[in-house]
Structures are given as structure tokens and as C-alpha cells.
């Protein structure tokens, strides 16, 4: 759920940077070099974020009908995608 929320938040942040007359070209231009800080997933930077993770996250597991934290929320260095 958090991945979907943060993906939508990233899209809206870029669209806002693109301006009122949003087009594919203005969105792409705004995305190129986009960055912000202090989000729930850490600092976001494009196009760097297309090749590696953003720096914060947590993992939970569903066990016996309840969510349990398996890795608490923490920030770390971005991890390259393979």
C-alpha cells in the first residue's frame, strides 16, 4: 500500500513542478532532474531513482491474521537495482 501511495505522491509532485499546462513533454522535462527531500521514503531524485531505490523503508509480515514489523522503518544508502 505504501508503494502505491508514494508512487502517486511522486507523480503528483512532478506534475506540480510541470505547471498548470501539463503535457507529456512538460511532465518529462519536470521529471528530468526532479528531486525532493524529507518524504516517507527519504530523499527522491530522478533519473537516479530509476536505477536505485530511494533511501528509507520498512517491512511488515502478515502472520496469524496480524501485521508484524519484520524490519523497522529506517533510512539507508540507496540500493542499485540489478
The gist of it:
With 82 residues, the protein is α+β, with helices and mostly antiparallel strands. The chain has helices at 2-18, 24-31, and strands at 35-39, 42-45, 56-63, 66-75. It has 2 helices and 4 strands, in the order H-H-E-E-E-E.
Structural account:
There is one protein chain. This protein has helices at residues 2-18, 24-31; strands at 35-39, 42-45, 56-63, 66-75. It is elongated and about 50 Å long. Strands 1-2 form a two-stranded antiparallel sheet. A two-stranded antiparallel ribbon has the order 3-4. The mean pLDDT is 83. Helix 1 (2-18) crosses helix 2 (24-31). It is α+β, with helices and mostly antiparallel strands and 82 residues long. Helices cover 30% and strands 33% of the residues.
**How are helices and strands ordered from N to C?**
HHEEEE
Helix content: 25-40%
Residue ranges: pLDDT <50 for 5 or more in a row?
none
CA radius of gyration = 15 Å
Distance between the termini: 23 Å
Per DSSP, what share of the residues sits in E-state strands of 2 or more residues? 25-35%
